[in-house]
Amino acid sequence: MTGDLCGQSVGVVGAGVGGLAAAAYLARDGADVTVYEKLSQVGGVAGRIEDSGFQFDTGPSWYLMPDIFERFFRAFGHEPEDFYDLTRLDPNYRVFWTDGDRADVPADPTAAAELFESYEGGAGEALLAYLSEAERAYDIGLNRFVVPGRSRFRDYLSLDVLRSAHGLRLLGTMDDHVTDYFEHPKLRQLVEYTLVFLGGSPYNTPALYTLMSHVDYGLGVYYPDGGMAAVVDAFEAVATEQGAEIRTETPVSRLDPGEREVTLSHSDGTATHDRVVCNAPPAHAERELFPEDVVDRPRSQWEDATLAPSAFMLYLGVEGNVDPLEHHTLVLPTDWDDHFERIFEVPDWPETPAYYVNVPSKTDPTVAPEGCETVVVLVPVAPGLPDDEDTVAEFRAQILDDIAATAGVDLRDRIRVEHRATVSDFERLFNKQQGTALGVAHTLRQTGPLRTGHRVPGADRCYYVGGDVNPGIGVPMCLLSGEHVTDAVREDVADRGVLDALR
């Protein structure tokens, strides 16, 4: 495929994971690629903070679906280990419940089955059956739908898709499906927590995403040395190796599609490109970047979208050890319905939050000074919440109090470095609608061909890439999105060539 885009100039707006992946694929195929990023570093939400010897991943911190990372690097003659080493974690994560209970969830499915059996008779066998179903869902969802890039309804009109029709019974809600296997509420939580990575809840996410349990147990949970920041560095290295130019601190203010080119206005002037791939959220692009009435979609459509949660983030450099926190730790109320209601139904700051604590220095001592730990706390919260200074300070105190009470480790008097991010930060820094941290949620009506596609409707020569579009949220999905948008560009360039030849 190399050379299919020779002579094409492509601008990429935004150097998030999707933008970097698209830049790499487009440049590999011969396009002259320029990436415009408004921030001083690449990665978008997957950024880094370095302060006084502490290093924090600002966004994603779970390395899942290693096969998708391998697919990306192999497309350019590399392997992940050319850039970073991986450590498989065991346990996958530790859970503290607010009733005083605690469990380590092992990497080995057989050992996990023993854990499940200790909570509910027959649950061990049920878990193994559930994981078998999850593996089938992964094969259907990833290998037959997501990886091939079926983003349009016409892409589903094939024998391969029809052979997969038995998987469509997984279109009910996740919670309904999980209840068929487990009665104990804690066990249901253990197989549903991954929905946080998809920006949904057990009550609005299709059961097809049971595949995430295969991601956990079948494929494994890993840590890349140097954190996810090292992985983003690798994406950037591949893109530049292919010939893409990346211009940071260059925000884009306008996109004007024309018949034969797209004019892009940025902080240093203007540029023209044959095509533009936009890694900015579509809601922002269609409200702020494209001229009114260019995009063939009502702007009000974005007001009706179900948004994934925002996040309250604490990046803490802590003196001393933080036992018994693990590399990945979940803190869960025994009944988390109220928290999900306060995200999706009646937006409000949660009173009994479910949240995640990441301590990468447990595995990688290079991310913290000697005798210290790097701690990141993530609490999913509703997008659009008011986050004035007093509210944030009060919620910070609540969370630190809760960590001390539930996990048994008091961080409050040992914090040497602290940074925060909350709703308004995601909106200001990343142009996220209402400050959602993840984008558009994976509800049934926002999945597969019902999710925003790669081609911008009505804006010829313009495309979208990233977590808001097909296939969806998460670093692996954004890598695939970069591959798929390149396929769309290549297809359109070929079609244009045929039309020009017929004129």
Automatic annotation (TrEMBL):
<dbReference type="Pfam" id="PF01593">
    <property type="entry name" value="Amino_oxidase"/>
</dbReference>
<dbReference type="InterPro" id="IPR014105">
    <property type="entry name" value="Carotenoid/retinoid_OxRdtase"/>
</dbReference>
<keyword id="KW-0125">Carotenoid biosynthesis</keyword>
<dbReference type="InterPro" id="IPR036188">
    <property type="entry name" value="FAD/NAD-bd_sf"/>
</dbReference>
<protein>
    <submittedName>
        <fullName>Phytoene desaturase</fullName>
    </submittedName>
</protein>
<comment type="pathway">
    <text>Carotenoid biosynthesis.</text>
</comment>
<feature type="domain" description="Amine oxidase">
    <location>
        <begin position="18"/>
        <end position="489"/>
    </location>
</feature>
<dbReference type="InterPro" id="IPR002937">
    <property type="entry name" value="Amino_oxidase"/>
</dbReference>
<keyword id="KW-0560">Oxidoreductase</keyword>
<dbReference type="GO" id="GO:0016491">
    <property type="term" value="F:oxidoreductase activity"/>
</dbReference>
<dbReference type="GO" id="GO:0016117">
    <property type="term" value="P:carotenoid biosynthetic process"/>
</dbReference>
